[in-house]
Amino acid sequence: MHIIDCYAYSNKIxxxxxxxxxxxxVTVLLLCLLLNRPLVSLLAVVWMWGLAVWQAxxxxxxxxxxxLAELFFLLLATxxxxxxxxxxxxxxxxxxxxxxxxxxxxxxxxxxxxxxNLVLRALGAASAMNxxxxxxxxxxxxxxxxxxxxxxxxxxLMTVMYRFIFVxxxxxxxxxxxxxxxxxxxxxxRGMASAGLLGSQLFIDTYRRSQRLQTALDARGYTxxxxxxxxxxxxxxxxxxxxxxxxxxxxxxxRLVL
Amino acid sequence: xSALLEFDDVYYRYPGQDHYALExxxxxxxxxxxxxxxxxxxxxxxxxxxxxxxxxxxxSGQVRFAGHPxxxxxxxxxxxxxxxxxxxxxxxxxxxxxxxxxDISFGPYNLGLSETxxxxxxxxxxxxxxxxxxxxxxxxxxxxxxxARVALAGVLAMDPDLLISDELMANLDPWGRRxxxxxxxxxxxxxxxxxxxxxDLNVVRRWSTYVVVMDGGxxxxxxxxxxxxxxxxTLEQTGLAQVWFDEV
Lengths: 258, 248
Description:
The complex is a heterodimer. By secondary structure, chain A is mainly alpha-helical. Chain A folds into 2 domains: 3-136 and 234-257, no CATH class; 150-219. In chain A, 72% of the residues lie in helices and 5% in strands. Chain A has helices spanning 3-10, 18-35, 38-54, 60-82, 109-135, 138-147, 152-181, 188-219, 238-257, and strands at 84-86, 96-100, 103-107. Chain B has helices at residues 45-52, 74-83, 91-94, 100-110, 115-129, 144-156, 174-189, 201-206, 225-230, 232-237, 240-244; strands at residues 3-12, 22-30, 34-38, 60-65, 68-69, 84-87, 162-166, 193-197, 210-215, 218-223. By secondary structure, chain B is an alpha/beta fold. In chain B, a hairpin with a 2-residue loop joins strand 9 and strand 10. The chains are: A mainly alpha, B alpha/beta.
């Protein structure tokens, strides 16, 4: 079972209404994007991380690890904002310069500020989504979408796709193991051939599986239409509601002070 | 001993194949028995099952449930599928929902029950199959044995009179099988009829009260295990003689 999924199912606020958790996460995300101040974004990260640990009981490092993975991609993407490369020497007097062969590497305080702001803004938004992902399993999010009157066909598709990610992953692992044990990946050429076979086999496997699923659904009296299942019961957490309000107000207050 | 489900000279050929999977199958499944269905791979066991609740329709011949020929319109099929539940060999093919409770609730909802009744049925089936403590767990985090019991609960939540199980236990360890048989014993006490396809001759000897032997798309034998053991001609003809008495 995947680690994010695992915590989503076992955290302390699992049974809290997904609307409440999604409401907090989306509000914080929007504040990060709209207020657009590095310190506000930083405070958002602190709040989301803190709530995940304090309210949901997640190990601090788990949240950190997920955030670190995202930070890595963010840094890669913002290098281009912070640095510029050209073949002629930049004339901006504020620029820091570094000459490597015929290339000039340069940056300015403004570019650096932009890059840092961008990273923190994205990180704040990402931490809000991480909070949601780590405390709310997909089943609950699907339930929330059902309540928001999203199209039933989309909801059914999401339900079945989410379920079959794991089933297919399982098939994939078994097929790869079977191929490897017969030296299917012993050389680059063999590896490419095996991967091709794997792809087509997985497609056939998926098709057969979908037919068997249809048969099994029919056997349980399915006559088309929505896949109806029990709604889950949730509760509203007053402490979380109070802390959420404080968090959101503090972000707004910080923006006013700055 | 009245027949709950009868096949009368049923022929069925899969589209695009030139031989019949069921070739003049005539057999009756008596009510209230533990019925074992045995036969080689490809003898037609799974095809037979898919005819039981109208998933497949015979090319010719007739299937009767409680004396009435099956009808294949939607309302008839719906009521038929309430009476006859099928658990499939691979639980992963059946469990579509990411939550155990939701998956079990699927069948009862299809019966048109209210939410209160659905909850009651889900709880009843979960209790019977020993999966109450798994109801809030995600389906993909279950072990093979747990998945089999959840799949069984999903069918039993519809409270069928006849439970058909297609080699449900083929992939289970002895403890997992034991738990399934415990559930079957409870069903027996509630007067349910169970048909179990199996390759395990021990199951035939110890559990079943009635045996059907499939061979080449036909029923080669139907009767009690003792009658089967005494029927040397059938044992010889179906090849059971080679495997029954001297399993390695």
